[in-house]
Description:
Elements: E1 6-9, H1 15-24, E2 26-29, H2 35-44, E3 47-50, H3 58-63, E4 69-72, H4 82-88, E5 91-93, H5 100-115, H6 118-126, E6 144-148, H7 152-163, E7 167-171, H8 177-185, E8 188-190, H9 193-199, E9 202-205, H10 219-224, E10 230-233, H11 242-250, E11 256-259, E12 277-279, H12 288-306
Parallel strand pairs: 1-2, 1-3, 3-4, 4-5, 6-7, 6-9, 7-8, 9-10, 10-11, 11-12
Amino acid sequence: MTYRPHIVVLDPVSSNALADLRQYHEVTVRTHPGHDELLALAAEAEALVVRSGVRITADVIRAGQRLRVVARAGSGTDNIDLAACREAGVQVFNIPGASAPAVAELAIGLMLAVTRNIAFADRQVRCGLWDKPNLAGPGLQDRILGMVGLGPIGSRTAELGAAFGMRVLAAVARPSEERDERLRGRHIERVELPRLLEASDMVCLAVPLTEETEGLIGAPELALMRNDSYLINISRGGVVDEQALFHALREGTIAGAALDVHEHESGISGLSELDNVVLTPHIGATTTDTQERVGRLLVQELRTVLAGGSATNSVC
């Protein structure tokens, strides 16, 4: 009998990807298991597949005596203990860039939803309230978009913002004269974060969650923003101090916020008490097109790694 490596899929992936994986591998699908079940699943797995919903901690890696690879079907790896993977010799790969168009489109959608009061107006109309005179908000044309982070998602969001007629500022982690020149060629002005916060009508966060970016936007940073400006978070919930954001929104320090990512991605957010907030459940990459694209790449990379090779985008 031909040997078939065992893959455990812990977050939703496309049905076509699952069908392809099952041609050559044993596949177990258990979405969002409890901790004890996760340890048991890891003990039998040679590959774990996750998105952002499951944390692969050091004890999960230790339980995986046969584990060879953790596959992140997306970009961020903050939910994977990379140090534990390195120590155990477990390869980790992600699929960056594939979801960038979808996440960037959602970023623009969130800007429109919060500035034009689309979500708020929808709630009102469903309750029989037609309050058109009090639903006016700013347009995007001729406004300043401040991008914090210019990876694939930030870059695409900047392009879409420019297509709406926005002027784009950017704050990046590793500035250089050469990079500034390239950005100017794309009609993007690189500035330091405090200047971006002070000048922007829309501040859009598109950075990974790292030790450097955790709590990047707190009360001092929000205080730098104008009272007619908006915060958009499409990165990770931990990048923003949500308690400070709640106070800034309630007190009118900023005009509004839209978040696709949250400190706690379950239950009811305290921000839901406020009408000047739009909240979505981390759906940035959740388009059918994107998930099919990610699924195809996931299958290719898993086949390579489980055959003894290295992934194209090996994180560790």
